[in-house]
Amino acid sequence: MKSKKHLPLTFYSVAVLLIGACKPTSATAQTTAVTTVSTSVEEKMYRPNFHFTPKKGWMNDPNGMFYANGYYHLFYQHYPDGNKWGPMHWGHAISKDLIKWEEQPIAIYPNKDKFIFSGSAVVDTNNSSGLGTGKTAPIVAIYTLHDMTKEKENKIDVEQQDIAFSNDNGFTWQKFDEGNPVIKNPGIRDFRDPKATWDETHKQWIMVLAAQDRSQFYKSKNLKNWEYISDFGKNIGAHGGVWECPDFFEIKVQGTNETKWVLIQSLNPGGANGGSGTQYFIGDFDGKTFTLDANFTKKVEQEKAVWIDYGKDNYAGVTWNNVPSADGRRLFIGWMSNWDYAQDVPTTVWRSATTIAREIQLVKKGNDYSLVSNPVKEINKYVSKTIKGKNLKGKGKLSIPEAGKIDLTQAIVNFNVKNLKQDTYTFTLSNATGESLSFGLNNSDHYLFLDRSKAGKNDFSEKFASTITKALVDGNQKEGVFKIILDKTSIEIFYNNGEKVITEIFFTNQPFTSLSVSSNEGIELSNIVINQLNIN
Ligand code: FRU
């Protein structure tokens, strides 16, 4: 949240510019006054076809996700009255399939200078909180209340954890005024983003929150009284910036009954390729203490950090609570932007989108555990046309002609690079104006890369396209398997069934219409399958 620290000023100046006067920031400021020029062009060019965006206003982190009564709920850090970060509300959207989202009225409003920061929500099935009225299980949201007045006065105890509850399956919310805060500030300036979950193994509510340079764990019987139990992470993993938005859950190793615990931990700055990024840790939890797996410790030491996504645009992602056990998936969504430039990207009506929802799995190879992420299978429902490409073999630049027959602003592109050599395979999406986005595999130095420096507008921020994104890969593999999800302004690359992921946004002046590949030694492409999506 680096740049937001100075935000009161930024917010007020933007508000003045946009709406002519400082609007009240309280719960009563419900109308939106974001106006803009040529919004139709921006809607057409940049409003994603299927990644969630708020109709208007600013969005950052996903919050409070849970499943109940047929809907996946997604809340998010939202400032409906401006297109930069400002007084934080919890916006709300619902979906039956994690792909098509319907925006709902604001869920939780700030109160004057007390902003509603990131947090989580649980379905309190047995009404352990006593906040239920008896008809449906209460949903309890736990979030950080951030006091802007204290922030301006340079106080330490700026952040505390509060709860709100819903007795209609998450559609309307009431703050728990008589009981807040449920966790007072213990004298730590950055003390936020509680993620609460039911810990079935130890039969307790647990909560992880970010405390500056570590995560702290708490437990509770009733979601109202929380006891601090331990912390994790000081001097472990990446620490280039403040830790934010953790998540903590137990997950089965694919294909076994063994379970491990995963800590997801965002930080800003200090991400894999600059700015905001999300690392993860795998270990064990005895109900009190999280202990890193021994081999994972080695991996963290070697690689400095292990990232859930190596792209610049997947931040503050966390997972859904209460996904039915018959489904059993661990479902994740991230904010598809980066604090380095999120407030400057060239949209005005809204700013930011979420990533595609992903399923996270834990895999074990030998004694090494790692996470893989892949787009949720529900995306396949929206495939309206499939073109299978001919295998391609040759040197120099080759066109993948099937891609030209598909609207690449909503598509899934799959292919395998066979018989990998010590070579660089560069794939290029391009359009008639000469804009291009390149990605691929450097199999001499063993990394994936993505370069958006020629992919349209990038002068709004020096940090946006000044470096090529890289993700190290295993050098011993014979084949590289690519699955790529394309929307108007985003690319999500899932490599080798989600072993490595790169998510980035771009702002071309025209859609991409072709895809080519180039190599020096020659390339063999197989399993070319291009899916047209139709999600509107
Ligand atoms: C992460 C973050 C959180 C905070 C929220 C405020 O992007 O900085 O730590 O709760 O954004 O909007």
Coarse shape: globular
* Share of helix, binned: under 10%
Instruction: Tell me how many strands there are.
Output: 32
List each distinct ligand once.
Answer: beta-D-fructofuranose
Number of helices: 4
Structural class: mainly beta
CATH homology superfamily name of the largest domain = Glycosyl hydrolase domain, family 43
CATH fold-level assignment of the largest domain: Tachylectin-2, Chain A
In the CATH hierarchy, what is the class of the largest domain? Mainly Beta
What's the pLDDT, averaged over the residues?
Answer: 93
Largest sheet: 11 strands, antiparallel
CATH architecture verdict of the largest domain: 5 Propeller
What count of structural domains?
A: 2
Low-confidence stretches: 5-37
Strand percentage lies at over 45%
Characterize the structure shown.
This is Glycosyl hydrolase family 32. Belongs to the glycosyl hydrolase 32 family. The chain is mainly beta and 536 residues long. The chain has 2 domains: 9-373, 5 Propeller (Tachylectin-2, Chain A), CATH 2.115.10.20; 383-533, Jelly Rolls, CATH 2.60.120. It has 4 helices and 32 strands. It has helices spanning 7-19, 39-46, 148-152, 294-303, and strands at 57-68, 71-79, 89-95, 102-108, 114-123, 139-147, 159-166, 174-175, 191-199, 204-211, 214-220, 227-232, 242-252, 259-268, 277-285, 290-292, 315-319, 330-335, 350-351, 358-365, 368-375, 383-388, 392-399, 410-418, 424-430, 436-442, 447-451, 469-472, 480-487, 490-495, 500-505, 514-533. The strands form 6 sheets. Strands 22, 23, 24, 25, 26, 27, 28, 29, 30, 31 and 32 form an 11-stranded antiparallel β-sheet that branches. Strands 4-3-2-1-19 form a 5-stranded mixed β-sheet, with no helix packed on it. β13 and β14 form a beta hairpin. The longest helix is centred in the N-terminal third of the chain and has 13 residues, at 7-19. Mean pLDDT is 93; it is low at 5-37. Bound molecules: beta-D-fructofuranose. Beta-D-fructofuranose (FRU) binds at residues 1, 60-61, 77, 88, 117-118, 144, 192-193, 244-245, 316.
